[in-house]
Amino acid sequence: xxxxxxxxxxxxxxxxxxxxxxxxxxxxxxxxxxxxxxxxxxxxxxxxxxxxxxxxxxxxxxxxxxxxxxxxxxxxxxxxxxxxxxxxxxxxxxxxxxxxxxxxxxxxxxxxxxxxxxxxxxxxxxxxxxxxxxxxxxxxxxxxxxxxxxxxxxxxxxxxxxxxxxxxxxxxxxxxxxxxxxxxxxxxxxxxxxxxxxxxxxxxxxxxx
Length: 209
Known about the structure:
By secondary structure, this protein is α/β, with parallel strands linked by helices. The protein is 38% helix and 14% strand. The protein is built from seven helices and eight strands; from the N terminus they run βββαβαβαβαβαβαα. It has helices at 39-52, 85-102, 114-121, 137-145, 158-163, 181-190, 195-208; strands spanning 8-9, 21-22, 26-27, 71-78, 106-111, 128-130, 149-152, 169-171. It has a six-stranded parallel beta sheet. Strands 1-2 form a two-stranded parallel sheet. The two termini are 26 Å apart.
């Protein structure tokens, strides 16, 4: 539970939310769990889910969100997992196309595939959010130069967190079952702001997607 004027936005989580937190619905084909024999059917089902999904709104004063829909994700590329890389590319490219067609932001999973991700990002018009960012400032600037939003979790590089522009910042708990309030409490002093202002900033960022 929190005492701030807006709920705490948790941009990406795999767990039920405690009171005082909200998230955005997300549907996607994760590179870890792809099956070439089911890919076409899963992409069709994904499109239907996305067309039916709606976005949570925190208060009457903050409306609009992501165009009344959900994020696409997690999706992306992972050179460490066992899924054939060619299959990952096919699924990711199809989800990029869905992002563009349905005008939905994309929630990115990327492990050791930055060059391909940056190549595929070129020419897209929808926002991409790099989830669970742990990289150093050099990589952060590279992502920002390509128009990415960046989401930080409990594990992060403090220098990158400090340097991220406020209008490109999100916070998340991802796989952790912990509430997000302690992350806001950690991040606010690093960024020399208050939890209330940080909360309002990430909500404003959501409205810009």
